[in-house]
Design a protein that fits this description.
98 residues; 3 helices; alpha+beta; 3-stranded antiparallel sheet; single chain
């Protein structure tokens, strides 16, 4: 009985640590994206022919930042979806012909 309890406690601690690491990484990534919007846009618009991105109230980039950043990197807005129940809106861009 005692070993089982110790096993459950240790298993629970492992789960808590794994979740904590995942949350910490996500926060670090979002902080980097907010502090480096140009580098983040370079990652998004990396030369692929079609790029899709969702923007919304909790996005690290605003709608305007994405559209202007895409245009300055040779992309044109191809499709703009309506906002969903959470305010997320899909933007699809196509790389302009050279």
């Amino acid at each position: 009985m005692g070993r089982m309890l110790i096993g459950l406690v240790l298993g629970g601690l492992v789960v808590v640590v794994v979740i904590g690491v995942a949350v910490s990484r996500d926060r670090s990534e979002r902080r980097w994206q907010r502090e480096n919007p140009d580098a983040h846009l370079d990652q998004i618009f990396n030369g692929e022919d079609v790029v899709s991105i969702n923007v919304g109230p909790l996005s690290t980039l605003t709608h305007a930042q994405v559209v202007v950043g895409a245009e300055s990197r040779g992309y044109a807005l191809f499709h703009q979806g309506g906002a969903d129940q959470y305010g997320l809106q899909e933007l699809v861009f196509r790389k302009a012909a050279a």
